[in-house]
Amino acid sequence: MDTPSDRTEEEQEQLNRQLDELLQELRVAMPGMQILFGFLLTVPFNQRFVQVTDFQRDVYLVTLLCAATAAACFIAPTAYHRIMFRHHDKRRLIRLASRMALSGLVFLALAMSAAVLLVTDFLFAKGTTIVVTVVVVCLFAWLWFGLGITRRIQGARSH
After folding, report:
1. Confidence (pLDDT) at 37
2. N or C: fewer beta carbons within 10 Å in the chain?
3. Are 40 and 115 in contact (CB under 8 A)?
4. pLDDT: is 91 or 134 the higher one?
């Protein structure tokens, strides 16, 4: 573990800034995950839920598990921080929280895509369901991950 006395003031400021930025990013993602998860918890109690097919029930389970996993990933850094509080482990906290945030985003994108699949499969024909779900998956993949990964690769090539 590194102690604050081992770090320069500039390193300490950089770690604080990185942690603040990460917290702001999580504040954007968390409400979406919370709303989706809360909604999913109420779905089985809807009277029409008994009308779902086996496929829709399986998609529902996958959606619920992805949302729960996203929640676990987004909240894990809080638990780690509380357990490690005052143990001067901010650098590791930031690395862990960054990985957990990215994992949470992956599972949130999967949960949201699966929720779209579930709803469209319940309401529309198979062709519409496939097209809409593929478009939504591609949208999440590109906007949430593809843009950043592409820029990161381009930046690595320019150095």
Report:
1. 95
2. C
3. yes
4. 134
Residue with tokens 């990985």: 99
Instruction: Return the amino acid letter for 51.
Output: Q
Q: With b meaning 16 or more CB within 10 Å and e meaning fewer, what string describes 39-75?
A: ebeeeeeeeeeeebeeebeebbeebbebbbbbbebbe
pLDDT exceeds 70 at position 1: no
Q: Is the dihedral of CA 124, 125, 126, 129 positive or negative?
A: negative
The predicted model gives 44-51 an average pLDDT of 92
Taking residue 14's Cβ as centre, other Cβ atoms within 10 Å add up to 14
Spell out the domains of the chain, with CATH numbers in brackets.
4-158 (1.20.140)
Q: Token pair of 63, please?
A: 């959606």
Q: Where are the beta strands (DSSP E) in 8-152?
A: none
Whether pLDDT at 90 is above 90: no
User: Is there a contact between 66 and 110 (Cβ–Cβ < 8 Å)?
Assistant: yes
Pairwise CA distance, residues 70 & 58, whole Å: 18
